[in-house]
Design brief:
Layout: H1 16-57, H2 61-98, H3 106-110, H4 129-148
Amino acid sequence: MSSELPIEQCKTEIEEYHKLEINEIFERTRNLINARLQAGTFLGTANLTVLSFAFSTQRAGLFFIAAGVMAIFLAVEFIASEYGKGFYARGVQLEEKYASDAADAILHRRLSSHISRKGYYHRATMSGVWLFVVITLVELASGILLWLAGWRIF
């Protein structure tokens, strides 16, 4: 950022309400990112555990459960992304209003490819979701192929 001054010493006069709102938006954004990371870690570990158990017991049905875990992960990501839209949009608006260089501000820089000309967040930031969709489909196909190859369902 071009200005390293504390928020109270910025050139632009910031209303007290907006100071509180900026702090709250950044805190909620940080908490949302942490929650998504924790959910992803938990569900990814659960997926790998189920797959390991499927290979060790040669049960094709466990691949369907692993695919279900990935589907839950996708649902959690979608819900969290939708929940975060409002925070991101308002944060970008406040950054454009008060940051000395809006293009260098934290949310604006992070979401630059997702921000329209007016600075509003216009689509979900679910980068890499296609990878998890592919993993889910591969797990489903593997379960079917292994079942046809002679593995037990459960």
